[in-house]
Design goal:
Largest sheet of chain A: 7 strands, antiparallel
Helix content of chain A: 25-40%
Largest sheet of chain B: 7 strands, mixed
Strand content of chain B: 15-25%
CATH superfamily of the largest domain in chain B: Ribonuclease Z/Hydroxyacylglutathione hydrolase-like
Number of helices of chain B: 8
Number of domains of chain A: 3
Largest interface: A-B, 35 and 27 residues
Number of helices of chain A: 19
Number of strands of chain A: 19
CATH class of the largest domain in chain B: Alpha Beta
Radius of gyration of chain A: 26 Å
CATH superfamily of the largest domain in chain A: DNA ligase/mRNA capping enzyme
Number of strands of chain B: 19
CATH architecture of the largest domain in chain A: 2-Layer Sandwich
Distance between the termini of chain A: 53 Å
Distance between the termini of chain B: 48 Å
Helix content of chain B: 10-25%
CATH topology of the largest domain in chain B: Metallo-beta-lactamase, Chain A
CATH class of the largest domain in chain A: Alpha Beta
CATH architecture of the largest domain in chain B: 4-Layer Sandwich
Shape of chain B: globular
Oligomer: heterodimer
């Protein structure tokens, strides 16, 4: 376990892709089977322990540590697994042998929910702080170390001197701890056969583009389609089996039985997962969130939030791989396929005809319909290339709305920016008073964060736990996608996707915007 | 008949300049210049310039002279560890604090009442300074930089091994280690030597003076070289030490593919290290961790514990629960950095 812990600890801190590859390759080269196979499963997100839950970790810690001290510590560290790993007190006689990753995985896989706690406790006693952290990350199912499944496979491919797409193609026919895969990469056996297994094709993604970048592009080369505000998915059907993959290649089919049910046979499709209202109107992202949060939806949830997929592309039909065709040819195949196989819950994302960028800009800005984030621009001649190639596809988001607000409260962040004051509540003026109108925790650089953090610490009026009220002085220019009426907020309005656009160190706070100005933007 | 010892708060209190001992008429680590100052150790937020009269250990005085020259103080009076001087009716004694070279706890006695000001301290051995000596007292004024139970520093040898392993794994990268100029820099050098690393270590200009001073005061640190003038490619696979701020500065662009490490107790919290762009966090601290802080409170057996600079609330809570009279002492001017 110590080797695995050291690996993911180092991966977390290593920003460069090459550095991460080197660390993983060193690990694969020096750790034996089946340990490295389970590590690979953890890195690619294939290792899930259904019976282990963050709550169990919390209660284990609460049984050992004073709750006040645990509370302050969690507040300071900002991450439960890390807090528990650091605060876990040594006990006499608790220094058993350090468990191996294999032992941990095998025992956890067999354990019932009530047994998990009993397993974890002696392991936590035997491991050091880094080992405990790795164990708890593993158990609660979120490594978050900046390594995608793709990067782990790339490390493996480079180490075994094969093409990463070869690994990708056979991947879904393999299972941890991947002995045949390692045998092949180390030259002991031929490549594993996958037979008729369906394979996930890594998605083709778009580059963002700004209005000013468009001048260099010829509108005649591109088609436009709406960018829907759901989640990108890939539908794969082979024989009698069906899969619904998220963008990262996770199989999320179990959460969407209504989509699986309407899926046809022998095809791979690319689309946007949405909750749709009866006349095809897209429900809010909040509604989709209801579905995403549930791994096993009940009938009521399925009825209230019916999921559907709006189709963008077709990658395979029967046994034919269409990815090498141009977008225009694939689109023709997709339209023909849709005409042949009309189904409730699967519809075609329409193209948006245009001749000039200016015309398209007006269409984009005029489309206030819910569920539209902007436009996609795709080169007519573009084949379907996995990854985010530069040039063929662009996402052109609708311009954000902005408002000048005043920083009122700051809270220490959790997760990525913990122990820094990184969550900012800001207000607008009403009758000479500031009213909080929203909260933002993104849109600034690390340098700006450090400066804001310092400023907050030096300009605190009052403290409540992790929250500080600050002197009204800093003007935050907030960008947001839209604003809606809300009964849950004191101001009566709620912004969608608020983020800090600029920190206006220069602007007098009395000149910030009023609540009236925000209300005029309500849709 | 016995005369009750005076209540401590009647003779030692906070003022705008910091901690003030009234019957002795001196300040401890004042944040601005005062007529009489007793200094715990040479870090800039404790030892400031311009005091008229300064009392400190010979090591601390040497450090203050190196840093401030003439401005170190009007008169500088050295007091060796364990010796006592009188200031008015107050007896003053300096006892090793184990923080950096010359660092001292200040032991004050006035009419049968004893107060110990810990200054910054740590308990584990450090090859560059004398080890902390616990003293029984009525009031223990303790630091609390790492006053949360998540701070448990690992053995320093383990952290140095991480650095040496990284040199093997990334032999083409210059390993740039952020260290404070006083104490941490020299401790990291000494630990590297103990781990058997015999290569020269390259120093940022700001670290050279104090490192030479340590050598002069009898702390051997092995071969060190100034960084300036060294060809870029000669630094591949080498260790460079620099002040923490320089690691994120344009200054570091002169180094070939630098891998940024940082030696600090704050590195225990992953996201702190990450936000600072540290690739190799080394949890090496010159401050007591939670276990050292709490064990020391028990050991000195004071009735009262006053907690200052750091995360006071948790340590006050802990000490109160264990039956000590504990309170937070608000002192301005101390930095969170160690």
């Amino acid at each position: 376990m110590n080797r695995f812990a050291a690996l993911i600890d180092a991966l977390l801190f290593t920003p460069s892709r090459n550095g991460k590859l080197r660390l993983m390759q060193e690990y694969f080269a020096t750790v034996s089977d089946p340990e490295r196979g389970w590590a690979l499963a953890a890195l690619t997100g294939e290792l899930v322990f259904e019976t282990a839950k963050p709550n169990q970790v919390r209660s284990l810690a609460a049984a050992r540590v004073d709750p006040e001290l645990l509370g302050w510590s969690y507040d300071f560290v900002g991450d439960l697994a890390e807090t528990v790993s650091l605060i876990w007190p040594a006990t006499a006689g608790g220094e058993g042998p350090v468990p191996s990753l294999v032992e941990i995985v095998e025992q956890l896989k067999r354990a019932s929910r009530s047994e998990v706690g009993q397993l974890l406790e002696p392991w936590l006693d035997a491991l050091d702080a880094t080992g405990r952290w790795a164990l708890l990350k593993l158990v609660t199912g979120s490594l978050r170390i900046g390594v995608s499944a793709r990067l782990a496979k790339t490390a493996l491919a480079e180490w075994g001197a094969v093409d990463v797409d070869r690994i990708e193609e056979i991947w879904h026919g393999l299972a941890p701890p991947y002995r045949p895969l390692f045998d092949w990469l180390e030259g002991r056996r031929p490549a594993p056969q996958t037979g008729d297994q369906p394979t996930f094709c890594p998605l083709m993604l778009a580059q963002p583009i700004e209005d000013s970048d468009l001048d260099g592009l010829d509108p005649r080369d591109y088609v436009a389609e709406w960018k829907w505000d759901g989640i990108r998915v890939q539908l794969v059907a082979r024989g009698t089996e069906k899969w619904l993959y998220s963008r990262s290649g996770d199989d999320i089919g179990a959460a969407f039985p209504d989509v699986l049910e309407v899926m046809p046979a022998e095809v791979t499709l690319d689309g946007e997962l949405l909750v749709l209202r009866p006349h095809g109107e897209v429900a809010s992202f909040n509604d989709l969130q209801q579905r995403l949060n549930r791994k096993n939806p009940n009938p009521k949830l399925l009825r209230d939030y019916p999921a559907a997929v709006r189709l963008y592309d077709i990658l395979r039909e029967g046994r034919e791989d269409l990815r090498g065709l141009s977008f225009t040819d694939r689109r023709r195949r997709l339209e023909a396929w849709c005409a042949r196989e009309p189904r409730r819950g699967l519809d075609l994302s329409p193209l948006v005809p245009f001749t000039a960028w200016e015309e398209l800009r007006e269409l984009r800005d005029g489309a206030r319909e819910r569920g539209i984030e902007g436009l996609m621009l795709k080169r007519e001649d573009s084949p379907y290339v996995s990854g985010r190639p530069k040039g063929p596809w662009f996402k052109w988001k609708r311009g954000a709305l902005t408002l000048d607000t005043v920083l009122m409260y700051a809270q220490r962040g959790h997760g990525k920016r913990s122990s820094f004051y990184s969550d900012y509540t800001f207000g607008a003026w009403r009758d000479g008073e500031l009213v909080p109108v929203g909260k933002a925790y993104s849109g600034f650089t690390d340098e700006e964060l450090q400066r804001l953090d310092r400023w907050v610490r030096n300009n605190t009026v009052q403290r409540w736990g992790p929250v500080r009220e600050v002197t009204p002085q800093i003007v935050l220019e907030i960008a947001f996608d839209s604003v809606h009426r809300s009964t849950r907020h004191k101001s009566g309005v709620a912004m969608r996707f608020p983020r800090i656009h600029r920190i206006r160190w220069d602007k007098p706070f009395r000149e910030a915007d009023t609540l009236d100005a925000l209300e005029k933007l309500v849709t | 008949m016995l005369i009750a010892a005076p209540r401590p708060e009647t003779w030692i209190r906070t003022s705008s300049a910091g901690l003030y001992c009234e019957p002795g008429d001196f300040h401890i680590d004042p944040i601005h210049a005062v007529p009489r100052a007793v200094i715990t150790h040479g870090h800039g937020d404790h030892a400031r310039s311009g005091n008229e009269r300064v009392l400190a250990t010979p090591g601390t005085i040497a450090i203050m002279r190196a840093r401030y020259g003439e401005a170190a103080g009007g008169s500088l009076q050295p007091l060796a560890y364990g010796e006592t001087v009188a200031a008015g009716d107050v007896a003053v004694r300096l006892v090793p604090a184990g923080h950096v070279l010359g660092s001292a706890q200040i032991v004050l006695e006035y009419r049968g009442s004893r107060v110990v000001v810990s200054g910054d301290y740590k308990r584990r051995p450090d090859p560059t300074c004398a080890v902390f000596e616990p003293c029984y007292c009525d009031v223990f004024i303790t630091e609390a930089t790492f006053g949360l139970p998540v701070f448990r520093h690992p053995p320093d040898t383990q952290e140095i091994d991480k650095l040496l392993h990284s040199l093997v794994l990334f032999p083409d990268r210059c390993h740039l280690v952020g260290v404070y100029a006083l104490g941490k820099c020299q401790r990291v050098l000494a630990l590297l030597r103990r781990a058997g690393y015999e290569q020269p270590v390259y120093l940022h200009g700001a670290l050279i003076g104090l490192t030479e001073l340590y050598e002069t005061l009898g702390v051997p640190l092995g071969p060190v070289l100034p960084l300036s003038g060294v060809a870029r490619d000669a630094l591949r696979g080498r260790i460079v030490l620099a002040p923490p701020a320089a690691t994120a500065d344009r200054w570091s662009r002169r180094l070939p593919d630098p891998l940024v490490a940082m030696a600090s107790g704050w590195m225990r919290v992953r996201q702190r290290a990450k936000v600072r762009g540290v690739e190799l966090p080394l949890v090496i601290s010159d401050h007591a961790d939670w276990d050292e802080l709490t064990a020391t409170i028990d050991e000195v057996a004071a009735e009262e514990v006053w907690v200052t600079h750091g995360r006071e609330e948790a340590l006050v809570y802990f000490a109160s629960k264990k039956g000590y009279r504990a309170r937070a002492l608000a002192l301005a001017g101390f930095e969170e950095e160690e």
